[in-house]
Amino acid sequence: YADTHSRKHSDSKIAKIKRLCRKVGLNEVVHKDDLTAIKLHFGEYGNDTHLNPSFVRQVVDAAKALGAKPFLTDTTTLYSGSRSNAVDHLHTAYQHGFTPAVVDAPVIIADGLFGANAIDVPIKGKHFKKAHIATEIHKAPSMIVLSHFKGHEMAGFGGAIKNLAMGGANTLGKQDQHGTVVSIDQNACIACGQCIGICPRKALSQGADKKTIVDAAKCVGCFECITVCDPKAISINWATEISGFMERMTEYALATVTGKEGRVCYLNFALNITPDCDCVSWSDMPLVPDLGILASTDPVALDQACYDLVKQAASLQHSHSKECCHGKDTDKFAERWPHTKGLIQLEYGEKLGLGTRDYTLVKV
Fold first, then answer.
1. 3-state secondary structure of 130
2. What tens digit of pLDDT does each residue of 275-297 get?
3. Residue 113 or 316, more confident
4. Which run of H or of E encompasses 204?
């Protein structure tokens, strides 16, 4: 764990990332000549709190120093936007600074041009016996997972586990994880049409009164319509559906690292801890101050530590004061998104053998 205090060059975040790579045992994870996947999220166009490319460069340099051949990677999205195919995704990555000149590594979209490329990975889960994992992520012999720890409207919070799960799956795998049809409150709908434009499967349309209606046969449950609905007219049955969604997501996280035992490490960046995922095309004010950068070979322990740090931190005063909690030792994510059950990914991840919730913070 490295805090965010910097008073000299050896205390800079860049220097701390280098130290974390050594302390986490990168030399045991990455081997000479490995085509090493550096899994991260490039951010939806318009988002500005995604990972800093200069931070990613330090990880690339560390992998190259061990003789590996790293590449930056992510997968296409279910929803329409700036990352729904490999060409647009690459353009977005470059616009956000993830160019070879900056990061000294190529960007490869792991599930192909249209998100169809995947390998079926057998798992023993409650929901799945196989998972559709992006081809290049599955085939890479080693992987370094870089995650921006932040809130999420459906998962509660997103860290290493969510990065593995949604980011490791192709579009079919993402559909597997969501698997829920949205519903629309016609009384709350204001007929603005924002949801219709973002739906990737044309499942939403205007009814006779111009209010949105959903075609259940087309809806893949990507939930992007929920994120752009200001009156919150679109929802799912949170009481019955959210637990299943969280479990399905966690099973996919396990599938993404299956076959890479001992060959994966993780860095979580608890910086700019916004209430929303980097999948949205904006960046709200952070919930709490920057807390640091954490590294581990256990994604469950890592996410648990980040969650605990956020819980213990004092909230920042900002425009969403009525929706967020301002005290210490409170679940900031559940206060912001009260329908979510973010801890399920940690509880179920431990049960699946993805990792343990026990940890010790060691400052470097």
1. strand
2. 999 999 999 999 999 999 999 99
3. 113
4. strand 204-206
* Distance separating alpha carbons of residues 348 and 159, to the nearest angstrom: 15
Q: How far is CA 207 from CA 6, 184, 193, 217, in A?
A: 56, 12, 11, 16
The answer to whether the beta carbons of residues 72 and 40 sit under 8 Å apart is: yes
Strand partners, 2: 293
Given a contact cutoff of 8 angstroms between Cβ atoms, the answer to whether 142 and 264 are in contact is: yes
DSSP single-letter state for residue 248: H
- What is the reported pLDDT for 180? 82
The crossing angle, in degrees rounded to 10, of helices 344-352 and 238-257 is: 40
Q: pTM of the entire structure?
A: 0.91
The dihedral formed by the CA atoms of 114, 115, 119 and 124, expressed in degrees to the nearest 10: -150
**316 DSSP assignment:** P
The DSSP string of 143-189 is: EEEEEE-EEETTTEEESHHHHHHHHHB-HHHHHHHH----EE-TTT-
pLDDT tens digits, residue range 116-152? 999 999 999 999 999 999 999 999 999 999 999 999 9
